[in-house]
């Protein structure tokens, strides 16, 4: 399914670029839940805690943010340990992309992740 997502995102970015809109759009995709590492009885994985988020757009500073997952250090539920608080991502989006004060929405200040360029 990641190949389907990858192809769709690539086609969307190509279209945005062709229309001169790549710098006007920021696309974020993630799962509302992480995944456990161990395969379950259905040859899939159960809901977990840590997961990945993808950001795409002409003003996205490419790279990997946060710590790479360490499959030898799972939490008590068998999930990856997360290293970036999702509120830091939201603070980045709110302030660096939308230009609004994130503290009133998030109920506090959170470090910015730095993936949005000007």
Coarse morphology = flat
Cα gyration radius (Å): 16 Å
Spans of 5+ residues with little confidence (pLDDT < 50)?
none
Calculate the terminal CA-CA distance, rounded to whole Å.
32 Å
Q: Which band does the percent of strand residues land in?
A: 15-25%
Number of helices: 3
Order of strands in the sheet with most strands: 1-4
Counting DSSP E segments of at least 2 residues, the number of strands comes to 4
Question: What about the largest sheet?
Answer: 2 strands, antiparallel
Question: What is the oligomeric state here?
Answer: single chain
User: SSE order in H/E notation?
Assistant: HEEEEHH
Plain-language structure description:
The chain is flat, with a radius of gyration of 16 Å. The protein is built from three helices and four strands, in the order αββββαα. Strands 1-4 form a two-stranded antiparallel sheet. A two-stranded antiparallel sheet has the order 2-3. It is of the alpha+beta class and 118 residues long.
Give the helix/strand layout:
Blueprint (H helix, E strand, L loop, with lengths): L1 H17 L8 E4 L3 E6 L5 E4 L4 E4 L29 H12 L5 H4 L12
Antiparallel strand pairs: 1-4, 2-3
Question: What's the quick description here?
Answer:
28% of the residues lie in helices and 15% in strands. The chain is built from three helices and four strands, in the order H-E-E-E-E-H-H.
List keywords for this structure.
118 residues; alpha+beta; two-stranded antiparallel sheet; two-stranded antiparallel ribbon; 28% helix; flat
């Amino acid at each position: 399914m990641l190949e389907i997502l990858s192809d769709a995102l690539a086609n969307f970015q190509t279209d945005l670029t062709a229309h001169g809109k790549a710098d006007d759009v920021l696309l974020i995709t993630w799962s509302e839940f992480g995944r456990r590492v161990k395969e379950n009885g259905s040859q899939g994985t159960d809901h977990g805690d840590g997961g990945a988020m993808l950001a795409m757009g002409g003003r996205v500073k490419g790279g990997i943010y946060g710590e790479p997952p360490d499959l030898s250090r799972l939490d008590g539920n068998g999930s990856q340990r997360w290293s970036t608080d999702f509120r830091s991502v939201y603070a980045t989006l709110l302030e660096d992309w939308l230009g609004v004060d994130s503290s009133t929405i998030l109920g506090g200040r959170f470090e910015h992740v730095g993936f949005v360029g000007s």
